[in-house]
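Quick one: structure for this chain?
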Amino acid sequence: GKLLLAYRSRNLLDKIEFTRHGFNLYSQKEIEILLKNSRFTQVSTTVISEPELDFDGKPLKIEGLFSIGIK
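Got it. Here's what it folds into:
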């Protein structure tokens, strides 16, 4: 089957206060390694830029990451 993970980058989430409480943050490379180590093949990631978001008075550049693997 095909697995699709949709997530935000560690770089973005490190800048948001609430993610410091009980969240596991991963980089794109870490996600791809986890998928490969779990025997997924054809692992790839697409990054989609989204409009900036004002969060607690700070403009944040938002990117959606979409990693795919086949098993």
